[in-house]
């Protein structure tokens, strides 16, 4: 495993200067007599671990760009955004570049330094965004337990997501002492707002309110259930795990490899040849370009199996 990337070491920078981003869902919401789907989007600061959750009406480019504008208006403009190869993310970058090129030359010169840098992870490499993928897993697991098969209104779902954001941003970033005289630990909320937890006093309602008509009480019961599930599923997983602690030799140019692809039908074994290595800053190769049947693909080394060389 390599050293920490520069995005996690943005010292003396505001929160969300380097941001990881991904979508999750879908969730069913009730709109009148119809049932529609909504998706969540998560922005995570790579340095301070602050989170920002929002709701998407679809997974198209327009919905993502509006969510990005809401995020920038509330949290400030990030310097860089790290994400996967989603079609909505790719399309948004293309849309922003076209909008920038349509400006006059004077505006382009003035706004050149204010462009957001999008850094895309290699295809089929979710472990490259493990810091925010782990948060998404925690949110999805807890919400799946809380919501289950019930359908709530969009306003209730948005309220629950916002309260979930407050719960995740209130977790301590370091060791929590059992001595009441010790200082309170630093939390993402403290870095965001400059003060301790500013949430409203908790209101506890019985689970029977899930069947009531009061949306406010319904959202509070869901938030309490999320907290219970969050403690049960997330906190026990915060143990140090030993992974990728042994150095392996890098791939060689023109090496023959077997590509692991879970989306292919069974009994399909794509075999290709390494045409270019993409080493990291420490010299270790974690991404490579593979040529398969005349086409070139970028794949992480974790999804490649080097085949033994046959002596001619």
UniProtKB/TrEMBL annotation:
Q: What is this protein called?
A: Integrase catalytic domain-containing protein
What InterPro entries does this protein's entry cite?
A: DUF5641, Integrase_cat-core, RNaseH-like_sf, RNaseH_sf
The residue ranges of the Integrase catalytic domain are 10-196
- PANTHER family the record matches: PHD-TYPE DOMAIN-CONTAINING PROTEIN (PTHR47331)
């Amino acid at each position: 495993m390599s050293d920490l990337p520069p995005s996690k070491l943005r010292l003396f920078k505001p929160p969300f200067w380097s941001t990881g981003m991904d979508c999750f869902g879908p969730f069913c919401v009730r709109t009148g007599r119809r049932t529609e789907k909504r998706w969540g989007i998560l922005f995570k600061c790579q340095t301070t671990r602050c989170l920002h959750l929002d709701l998407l009406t679809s997974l198209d480019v327009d919905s993502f760009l509006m969510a990005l504008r809401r995020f920038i208006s509330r949290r400030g403009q990030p310097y860089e955004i790290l994400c996967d190869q989603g079609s909505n993310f790719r399309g948004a970058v293309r849309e922003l570049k076209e909008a920038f090129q349509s400006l006059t030359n004077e505006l382009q010169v003035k706004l050149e330094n204010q462009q957001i840098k999008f850094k895309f992870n290699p295809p089929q490499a979710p472990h490259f965004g493990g810091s925010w993928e782990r948060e998404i897993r925690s949110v999805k697991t807890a919400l799946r337990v809380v919501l289950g098969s019930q359908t709530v209104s969009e306003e209730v779902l948005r309220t629950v997501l916002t309260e979930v954001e407050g719960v995740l941003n209130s977790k301590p970033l370091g060791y929590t002492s059992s001595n009441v005289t010790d200082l309170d630990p630093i939390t993402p909320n403290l870095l965001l707002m400059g003060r301790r937890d500013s949430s409203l006093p908790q209101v506890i309602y019985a689970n029977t309110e899930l069947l009531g008509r009061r949306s406010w009480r319904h959202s509070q019961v869901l938030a309490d259930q999320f907290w219970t599930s969050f403690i049960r599923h997330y906190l026990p997983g915060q143990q140090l795990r030993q992974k990728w602690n042994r150095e392996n030799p890098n791939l060689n140019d023109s090496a023959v490899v077997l590509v692991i692809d879970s989306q292919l039908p069974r009994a399909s074994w794509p075999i290709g040849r390494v045409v270019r290595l993409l080493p990291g800053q420490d010299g270790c190769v974690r991404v490579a370009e593979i040529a398969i049947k005349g086409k070139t693909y970028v794949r992480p080394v974790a999804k490649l199996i080097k085949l033994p060389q046959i002596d001619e």
